[in-house]
Write a structure and sequence with these properties.
By secondary structure, the protein is mainly α. The protein has 21 helices and 2 strands. It folds into 3 domains: about 1-205, no CATH class; about 210-335, no CATH class; about 350-415, no CATH class. The protein has a two-stranded parallel sheet with strand order 1-2. The two termini are about 30 Å apart.
Length: about 425
């Protein structure tokens, strides 16, 4: 209820109003990146029309309920549970999803971020449901809806796109029919449309050459993979204990070899992020959770006794963040979010944060002339997303630049 618009919301609104939807799409695809669906959603940011700032407060709730809703649908469809039992399982599943997030602020409360990273996960849940209905009924509507969502997801974010592409390849390999070939063909075509966008290449830059470059890539791949293995391994015993029945049912339907192949799909995005030298950050959350679920299934096949240590998982998830790395690599610090959420609720002046941000925006709007200096935000929450702008004694950052463009100012800074 205290969430507010961020600078990215303002710049997306500015870009759309200046260039139009088609012009903004072209500019983004050619000069920023190939996430054609995720970026298109951001073009509809309502900050210009939402003068009371209602949308940032209701949008995260809508997305969270959508996640729980689609999980409930899949529990009913795949495990034939009652609505009540499916809903209970969905809430528990959401709990695991939340504690494994690398960045709650950027995933749930940053509007432009949730459009890129959270909405695709929800849509992937619907695709899973459509696939099941298509298989059971054979009705064309489920096939067409599946194709549509494949197109959408390939342009949402590259991590989830690679996971989906890997699964479509497995699906076709297991059952070589016309529909699965179309799924794979459509997926491959739109994956290329996303990955080969000129904007992706205009933002890439490497200074290392030769063997140094490949050592760096291998090191990043190893570090990212180790982080994901460590963070998920500590929670797997509890997950197996809670979802034991469902994991057993899945085990009865597939072989161990197939389970390993499905798990191995997670290596595709990890190899890709290593290649482009991306270290652990918000974009890894899809592969982290996919790794977690599929790795849990492998444990059920071979090491199910690990569930006896569920109590260790319970202890670990309530521990504070393990702060080991310097600030530049702080995303590698393992955090299960529960302590931070509790601290936020009990200690942070969330209402004060909302008021300070709203007062800042009002001051910028009402100040005549091209320059304005505002107070720094003092009550900065850890769970809600916020990135402060540069002060009068610092060089301009993207935050200053975006607000200056939206409010038609030449100079916006904070006081020292």
């Amino acid at each position: 209820m205290f969430n507010v618009y961020q600078t990215d919301d303002y710049i997306w609104s500015y870009s759309t109003r200046k260039l139009g939807l088609l012009g903004s799409f072209k500019e983004t695809y050619m000069h920023w990146g190939g996430r054609y669906f995720g970026y298109s959603i951001n073009m509809f940011n309502p900050v210009f029309y939402d003068k009371n700032g209602i949308f940032p407060k209701i949008y995260p709730v809508f997305l969270i309920l959508s996640f729980i809703g689609v999980t409930t649908l899949n529990c009913k469809e795949y495990f034939k549970y009652s609505l009540g039992e499916s809903l209970k399982k969905a809430f528990i599943f959401f709990f695991f999803y939340t504690i494994l997030l690398i960045s709650i602020p950027e995933h749930y409360f940053w509007i432009t971020g949730s459009n890129i990273y959270f909405i695709p996960v929800i849509l992937a849940g619907f695709l899973l449901y459509f696939f099941k209905k298509n298989e059971e009924t054979g009705r064309k509507i489920w096939f067409y809806l599946s194709v549509l969502l494949i197109i959408v997801l390939m342009g949402s974010n590259e991590i989830l796109a690679l996971i989906l592409q890997g699964l479509l390849m497995i699906l076709y390999d297991q059952k070589r029919n016309k529909q699965n070939l179309i799924f794979l063909g459509v997926g491959s075509l739109f994956l290329l449309a996303s990955f080969l966008a000129p904007g992706n290449f205009s933002r890439m830059g490497e200074t290392e050459e030769g063997i140094v470059k490949w050592i760096k890539r291998a090191g990043i791949f190893g570090a990212n993979t180790m982080y994901i293995v460590f963070k998920t391994l500590l929670v797997i015993p509890l997950f197996i204990k809670v979802f034991e029945k469902e994991l057993h049912e899945i085990r009865e339907k597939i072989t161990f070899r197939k389970a390993v192949v499905i798990w191995a799909v997670s290596l595709l995005p990890l190899l890709f992020t290593g290649y482009i030298a991306n270290t652990i950050a918000r974009q890894f959350e899809s592969v982290l959770f996919y790794f977690f679920i599929t790795f849990s299934l492998i444990f059920v096949f071979k090491f199910e006794e690990i569930k006896k240590f569920w109590w260790v998982s319970v202890m670990v998830i309530f521990l504070p963040e393990f702060k080991v790395f310097p600030k530049k690599y702080s995303n590698f610090d393992v955090d299960y979010n529960l302590t931070n959420i509790a601290k936020e609720i009990t200690e942070t002046d969330l209402k004060g944060y909302e008021n300070q941000v709203n007062n800042r925006i009002k001051l910028i709007e009402k100040t005549p002339g091209d320059s304005v200096v505002v107070d720094r935000i003092k009550a900065v929450p850890g769970v809600l997303y916020f990135d402060e702008m540069a002060s009068v004694n610092e060089d301009e950052t993207y935050v200053n630049d975006q607000l200056q463009k939206y409010f038609n100012k030449k100079y916006i800074r904070t006081k020292e």
